[in-house]
Amino acid sequence: MSDALTPVPRRRLGTDGPEVSAIGYGAMGLSGVYGAADDAESLRLLHRLIDLGVNLIDTADVYGADGHNEKLISGLLADRRDEVVLATKFGIGQDTGLGRPEYVRRAIDASLSRLGTDHVDLYYLHRVDPSTPIEDTVGAMAELVRAGKVGHLGLSEVSPDTLRRAHAVHPIAAVQQEYSLFTREPEQRLLPATRELGVGLVAYSPLGRGVLTGAFSSVSDVENLEVRKQRYPRFEEESLRRNIELTRPLRDKAAELDLTPAQLALAWLLAQGDDVVPIPGSRRPANVEANVRAAAVELDPAVVAELSEAFPPGIVSGERYHPDGMARVEQ
């Protein structure tokens, strides 16, 4: 039984997609990406999320060595499968051909085995395979729906054109895209396309990979900084210093409203439309609980506009990924 202070609102992903909590949970950080994580504590955290009313749990086959993240989540599913809208992904890595139909079939079976379930509710193509027409990849994913292994289909980091081509093959319930006060590019082309087609947008890294939480007052506060710098140019020291300073208006407004900066950043995202579902991924129970409570925050439109003006598109310092990573997004 949920012991949340107020019920977590629900939103539907896509015209006929799954009904999910307005704030979901991105589980990648439970596999040591941003710092050490203890499996027993992580499992308790996942159970706590369900108790609080969160039902959307997001993972991927590449999170952690040897499918660690999916295996971890299997411990939650063993007891509470019917309470979880389970999302996982396939098709990212250095190998070629990860969008080919034969790979799609192998990937889902491997994920189902690690997760210990017979179906996933939402199955994403993690990145477009440039060597395979999107129609072929989505056609194979549609076969998984007909086979009962997958409930709904999703794409991640795609262009509007690719989304339209995919949607013509089989309805797409959701596109997962980086979206936050620091990353507002989806507003320019992607969101108009998702809304035209009736597709939900799942916002990953909604807190700027931690910078928008206000937890960092200096570069030295950032856990696992060397790993983050290797992955994300925004964590290179000069950019990071500037980006931490950029959060001042958010921190000031959050204090004025008696919210945490993370709650305010999430509430701003939720105010962008009922089709937007952020999936923050803190490993700390207190932060997780505070983030979930952001789903009940209703911001005055003037506050939404004030934050939008304080964080215009392009204000953040540094690219989202290094060049090889940027080459794989919005294809």
UniProtKB/TrEMBL annotation:
Classification via InterPro entries: AKR, Aldo-Keto_reductase, NAD(P)_OxRdtase_dom_sf, NADP_OxRdtase_dom
Keyword Transmembrane helix among record annotations: no
NADP-dependent oxidoreductase domain residues are 22-309
**SUPFAM superfamilies named in the record:** NAD(P)-linked oxidoreductase
Top-rank taxon: Bacteria
Q: Which UniProt keywords apply?
A: Oxidoreductase
The identity of this protein, by name, is Aldo/keto reductase
